[in-house]
Specification:
Layout (H helix, E strand, L loop, with lengths): L1 E2 L2 E2 L11 H11 L7 H20 L2 E2 L8 E3 L6 E3 L6 E2 L16 H5 L18
Antiparallel strand pairs: 1-2, 3-6, 4-5
Length: 127
């Protein structure tokens, strides 16, 4: 919402911390060293669903990692976050996510094992 010259973004609270903290805490608390498989599967299913939802709308996150996956207060539902890393349709050329610092090292060095094989999907690593 906008108030005068300022623009405010109101978002749902994600007070359960990030996925990295949850996994590290579970690793220290359990003799087996991690989240119970049932819990891990539920969170992974949510993550796959969220990424599919973004990709269907032409959004590529470009910095998906455990620290950018937040949890609600009950630590049951994930929320994907990130600052300046989402790119609509990979077409915004004036945004810093497309700069040389965002290109993966393998792309920069042209270091691929399958150079001539056809690729599928969107070219997320190319700016």
């Amino acid at each position: 919402m906008q108030h005068g010259p300022r623009l405010y973004v109101v978002m749902e609270a994600a007070t359960g911390g990030d996925l990295s903290a949850l996994v590290l805490a579970a690793r220290g608390a359990r003799a087996s060293g991690g989240l119970p498989e049932r819990r891990a599967r539920a969170l992974a299913a949510q993550l796959v669903s969220a990424v599919r939802h973004m990709h269907e709308r032409g959004v590529v996150h470009r910095d998906l990692k455990m620290e950018n996956i937040m949890l609600d207060g009950a630590k049951q539902f994930i929320k994907i976050v990130g600052k300046k890393k989402c790119d609509k349709s990979c077409e915004r050329k004036n945004c810093d996510v497309n700069g040389p610092n965002s290109v993966s090292v393998r792309v920069e060095r042209n270091d691929f094992d399958v150079k001539d094989e056809p690729r599928s999907g969107r070219p997320a690593d190319y700016g």
